[in-house]
Amino acid sequence: MKKLHNLILFVGLVSTSAQSATILQYHHVSEKLPPVTSVSADTFKSHLEFLKSEKYNVIALDTFIEQLRAGKPLPINTVAITFDDGYDNNIEAAAPLLEAFNFPYTIFVNPKLIDEGQSYVMTWDELRTLSKRGALIANHSAKHDYLHLRLKGESDTQWKKRVANDLTWSQQRIATEIGHNLPYVAYPYGEFDNSVQSLVKELGLIGIGQHSGAVGVTTDFTRVPRFPASGIYSNLKTLKVKIKSLPFAIDKLDYDNSVTTNRKPTFILSFKDMDFYQSQFACFVSGVGRAKLAWNGKNEVQVSSPEELPNGRSRYNCTAPSKTHKGHFYWFSQPWVIQDK
Fold first, then answer.
1. Where's the NodB homology domain (predicted)?
2. pLDDT digits (tens, 9 = 90+) for 108-147
3. CA nearest 249: which of 68, 80, 62, 81?
4. Where do the domains of the chain lie, and which CATH numbers do they carry?
């Protein structure tokens, strides 16, 4: 009976680990625009060729998210492809390649910028064309503003009303122009704080960031991670490892706020189960190096930086090789925005 119990426990652990997938984030497919957010057509094509040759399960973002939210397992090596901002090169360069591979994708757009006729973004007509060809169109806020920032003299109540109006208005514009209304918002610049997350949840939306990591059934769906795949992150050799990553089975994530004046911010991770060796768990601070770890028993770890962080965006990236899925790494990223007091 004990052997049967152990077998059931082992299968349960493997099943939890298998409920994983990654989301890729792109902006431009172009060689003429800023390299930091761009990928050439040839490089983008090489990414798609890799996904096809390795038989990755490339699915639409709505299927991806709703299955995981329902606790339904996704096969390992499941991928969703996304674009931010709705640049015109998406229809000119990206869409033909994606359609040639028969890969679904999502474009996050800023409706007010489209309404203003900004020359660098697609028109509603172009987005409708892509939608009819299978693309999903979703919310990236009205004008790509920093959602967590308060205007001068603005109270928390006024901020909440303004940002809620921004997000709901954008949802309605997309529904009117495109015909579908996915409850997803990709945070502009990938930045969010506790109040933004609470508002997104209150509005019934899924919040999607730009911090790296895999997505699983224990993911906080007000801060869904994506792997940037443009600029320095477009190198296929390193991208292959990220695409294969798994989500840690997180029981609790605890920190004060991701937008903070604390220059040595700390977070605590508690794990439901650990398909990795504690000794192989490591975290790295962007621009600094290895993070400080303090384990509280077997399943809980506190992560902090050994040095003060500069103003702006920083990340702590934590990884560990899987014991049961050889060649796969667990991956979690904690984003920070450091501000002056």
1. 77-280
2. 999 999 999 999 999 999 999 999 999 999 999 999 999 9
3. 68
4. 17-244 (3.20.20.370), 251-338 (2.60.40.1220)
